[in-house]
Amino acid sequence: MKLPKFRPALFLLLIPFLANSQSIEEEALDWLTEYITIDTINPPGNESRAVDFIANILEAEGIPYQTAESAPGRGNLWTRLKGGDQPALVMLQHTDVVPADEKYWTVDPLSGEIKDGFLWGRGTLDMKGTGISQLATFISLHRAGVPLNRDVVLVATADEEAGGYFGAGWLVDNHPEIFEGAGLLINEGGNGEQREKELLFQVEVTQKVPVWLRLTAVDTPGHGSMPNPTSSMTRIVDALNLIRTNPFPPRMVPAIDAMFQSLSLSASAEWEEPFSNMSQTIKDPDSLLKLQNYSPFLHALTRDTCSITRFEGSNKINVVPPEAWAELDCRILPDRPSEFFVQDLKDLIKDTGVDVEVIMAFTAAISTTDTVLYEAIEEVTGERHPGSRVTPYVSTGFTDSHFFRDLGIPSYGFDPTVVPESEFVRIHGNDERINIAAYKRGVIDHLAIIATVVYD
């Protein structure tokens, strides 16, 4: 499908919305600055605070909305602009954020402080900033009053940072009417990244599948001074050591191979050839180790992985416990069911006497790039950022998009705000922040992309 070169949607960006004295990107920055100060750290979440904040903005615009709590304090909100009969476009955001330890920050994580040209605070990058960009787009379409070719739905959910079961997953199960007729969805997951050679806009189309596992061992307890040949602790340690020393075999799946080939176009001389032919590169253990040292993220896209994240046995130093457990954060490539992976892991540790329980496992799905939304991303970023390039992207983390790919809705993780590669370590880390000038430009870019889709 080919988009026409000139579209009324882009022209709308050149005219003031109604009689507002403040531009939408300035409004968005003000909203985000306040939004950061609202504590929605998960756990416990308290996302109803965010729902109240968003609801107040919608009420001031005269926009109706609905809310529902999946549990006390776990609020979700949705609102809809009615349009024509084309499949609806959903803008999805989560309102919870991960914890932040203030003693490791240079500012209060919930201060919304502005300094050095940045807005600082937990959620500026993940994903309150994107959420406010979506809200600004939604309100701009409402203010413009121009007929839409499809419904536009804004959904703000709880609990993404802990799996989404009190948020997007709960809405899919308990309020499926929100998503009826939806044919496109935009969420977090990709963005603009300024690299050494070029500006690259990465659109997340799939992700490694999370498989969270608990390993449990039971054996004879006793006094620490009289060890038995085996114990719950030695069994767990043996199992974890087998997993640590037996990495899963590397393999390439088409979406990831395409991503590496795209990266090769702007890679350094050292990585141009390996990235362009990853099917061969992964056959060399030394090349894989070199890649892991260079980029743990890119290396993680070459194989299934497990990280040992939690481990517990006795609560007393001289007691051998009857039970010990460990938890693994495993992420598998999106080309086979998680059940196959779990069986492989069980086979690996079967002689240790350790039981394996699946805490959480999603299904694999990949979104096509042959949609009007993906083409709009290409068109708008190309016009507003000459010389830039758009590429499909595969994430090692997970987002709520998987719930909707399971429903057959093409779902993209994308925010056009340009973030330098060096800033990504701040996501879930210390001193999270966003460049104000880049953010305000990203707000307008986001509006232009969505307007290109929803106006004929």
How would you characterize the overall build of this protein?
There is one protein chain. A hairpin with a 4-residue loop joins β7 and β8 (about 200-205). With about 450 residues, the chain is an alpha+beta fold. The protein has 2 domains: about 10-205 and about 365-455, Zn peptidases (Aminopeptidase, 3-Layer(aba) Sandwich), CATH 3.40.630; about 210-360, 2-Layer Sandwich (Alpha-Beta Plaits), CATH 3.30.70.360. α7 runs antiparallel to α8. It has helices at about 10, 25-35, 50-60, 130-145, 170-175, 230-245, 255-265, 270-275, 280, 285-295, 295-300, 340-350, 370-385, 400-405, 435-455, and strands spanning about 65-70, 75-80, 85-95, 115, 120, 150-155, 180-195, 200-205, 210-220, 220-225, 305-310, 320, 325-330, 355-360, 390-395, 410-420, 435. The strands form 4 sheets. Strands 1, 2, 3, 6, 7, 8, 15 and 16 form an 8-stranded mixed sheet that branches. The model is unreliable at about 1-5 and about 15-20 (pLDDT under 50).
Topology:
Blueprint: H1 8-12, H2 24-36, H3 48-61, E1 66-69, E2 75-81, E3 86-94, E4 114-115, E5 118-120, H4 128-144, E6 150-157, H5 168-174, E7 182-194, E8 199-207, E9 209-218, E10 222-223, H6 232-245, H7 254-264, H8 269-276, H9 278-281, H10 285-294, H11 296-300, E11 305-312, E12 319-320, E13 323-332, H12 338-348, E14 355-361, H13 372-384, E15 389-395, H14 401-405, E16 411-418, E17 433-435, H15 436-454
Parallel strand pairs: 3-6, 3-7, 7-16, 8-15
Antiparallel strand pairs: 1-2, 2-6, 4-5, 5-17, 7-8, 9-13, 9-14, 10-12, 11-13
